[in-house]
Probable dual-specificity RNA methyltransferase RlmN
Amino acid sequence: MVTQLPLVFDAPRRGKPPRHLADLTVDERVELLKEKGLPGFRAKQLSAHYFARLVDDPDQMTDLPADQRHALVEALLPTLMTPVRTLEADGGTTRKTLWRLHDGALVESVLMRYRDRTTVCVSSQAGCGMACPFCATGQGGLQRNMSTAEIVEQVVAGARSLARDEVPGGHGRVSNVVFMGMGEPLANYNAVIGAVRRLTEPAPAGLGMSARGVTVSTVGLVPRMRQLADEGIPVTLALSLHAPDDELRNELVPVNTRWNVQEAVEAAWHYAATTKRRVSIEYAMMRGINDQGWRADLLGDVLQSYGDWGWVHVNLIPLNPTPGSKWTASDPADEREFVRRLEAKGIPTTVRDTRGSDIDGACGQLAAVE
């Protein structure tokens, strides 16, 4: 029996966060300063402090006039979020931070440092309206959309912690960003696209990351997936599929009652064909629910029906526990069989390296509670 759950696409209206330079284009930053009676050319210096030097202390911005420094910072670098706590795992190389936004909303981000890369998993909404029953975030409901600058600040904060040797491994930089934290990124489309542009624009306009290091995840908002294909930004698209058949996916991912498996996979294929970027299919492995061999075969057939030109990769995710959930992770033997069957059909498949589960910082565990 399918349990119909509410889907929320429009976030409740709350007080807007203060405008921040990360919300604005280079020209808009100049105009904002001029509107406030401040010299517009200082916008470039402020941008360099934020994106290139990763400075957050006005007293360190010594190239700004002392009598204007705090007014300039207040105009373009207002405080957007305050850290409530940071939990660490994996010897300090995994760090989950709980943030309080200006209106009291709580969100979480996770920094994961590996030998060859550092990834920041960011939230795009406070809460989530997609109501997936196996996800802690989805069970909490949606509070509001985040602004472009609030999203960017999670990455910049991670970059600061690396630059300040707060993460074991010495100085480093953020190489990857995944929009897999709290919220459905494509339900907050404009802010997310704005954040992607800020992250990938060269300093001082932005953080100067490679777009190929950015992954945008979605449960399958088909019109927005197609819109993303036309943006001209070569990010990786990740489709959280979790089931190859509509009967089960209607229950696991309620948005499937609006855009079904065929429509979601078709939109993913369209993204790959348009951008020439391989799409990732995210599949949380749940014991006795979606991990049967025949479902692996069906998933392989669905993906293979669009051709074998390497357009897709399956990323299996061992389900992470959430409080009070009836869902549990698959048996490792079933997981291996699932991989074997997909690979037999020519579908590249990997099992995600799960990090941070002991601090509720892994996929599906972010709940932002104090």
